Amino acid sequence: MSRMDFESQQTNMETPNSGGWSELPMDILRSVFERMSFVDFHRAKIVCLNWYLCSKQTLPRKTGSPWMILFPEDDGCVLYNPDEARVYRTKRDFSGIRFLANSRNWFLVLDSKSNLYIIDVFSEKRFNLPPLESIKSGHFSLKRVRDKEFNFRLYKNYAGYLTYNNVVDLRGILWVDEKKEEYIVAWFLDSHATFIAFCKNGEHHHRTIPTFIDVDVELQGARDIVLWGRDTLYVYTTLLYIRLVDLSGQEGYKDVSSSDKSPFSLRSPPSDFEIVEALPYRARGRISRNKNIAVTTSGEVLLVESIIYGYGTTKHMIFHLYKKDPNPNPDDILYNLNSLVEVDSLGDDAILLDLGITLHADHSTLGIEPNFIYFTLHDRVDCPREHSYLNICVFNLGTKTLKRFPELSNLKLKDARWFLPY
């Protein structure tokens, strides 16, 4: 057993010598565990086997707000608990590792040798994944050239050609069920990738979903992707349609997109000029707009538009949400015209935009504020990292106001992600 992987900047958290503590009766141990803070709970459960077994029978204290994992420019990572306004620094060496996606405590990471695996940030649990070049496809192949370089070959009605791909462009999404030790991973090489690869627990290769070959033109490309539960992949396509892919089969995938071929976008979105004209004069400046999708707990798709505006380092931000009109105009249905309506409230739900999902915002258990959008990075999928804008905030959809975290301004961050600890 190892010691806790994170320590507070303010408190020494070295694991004590377990000694006779491991022989404490289970009822006493359980009483102790129930009184521990969230961090101490995870620290204590790896002291010895007896404590670990007790932790499995005890519910940890609620964490309050979702946490953030932060990535300073000097490499590595730290954890941040907004309720405590406290940073926990890692004892593990994460230098050279890119964190691509997360599901609760579990993170999909890519190391300096382009090995892909899943780790729990509160323990040393790890799932190794097949090599990137192990993709199983009749259309594509990847051949490793160097640690971070691959040759990509395309087949299918082509003589075959090579293109250079650097894994710095790799994007990913993740879903994990810790109790069942089940997971599914999906990844692609950039926003113009010709395939999305995916892999489930127990598999020894990655299977592929073509994004252009043998795909209807409306459903081609991938501007944004969301993994909803274990089996369903939502793809926001280049032409702004929703592609739905079922991953539940033993082999391959099934395209289950709706026969409704209307784009999922505003029919007449306001221009940048119209947006600027509606802003207070002092807030005007350069406009940056981005569209993502988020999937609700019922499977409904929301369009999330984020708008950043302002001059220099003075940036402002606002969000707009849209959903499919439940009562569309009959002519819209007849001519396959999109019909979206703005969403003014999420009710008792909140959006974790990094994950592309909504969650029931039960503040007493999860610590999530209802009607809020938790946000970190502008253009996470569609824009190269060097052009993305890090903007850690929580947006109140009801009041149209932002909550920021000025205590993080001295950390010189290059990236961040919200996550919900177990």
Automatic annotation (TrEMBL):
InterPro entries: F-box-like_dom_sf, F-box_BR-signaling, F-box_dom, KIB1-4_b-propeller. Residues 21-56 form the F-box domain. Residues 79-396 form the KIB1-4 beta-propeller domain. Pfam families: Beta-prop_KIB1-4, F-box. SUPFAM superfamilies: F-box domain. It comes from the Eukaryota. This is F-box protein. It comes from Cardamine amara subsp. amara.
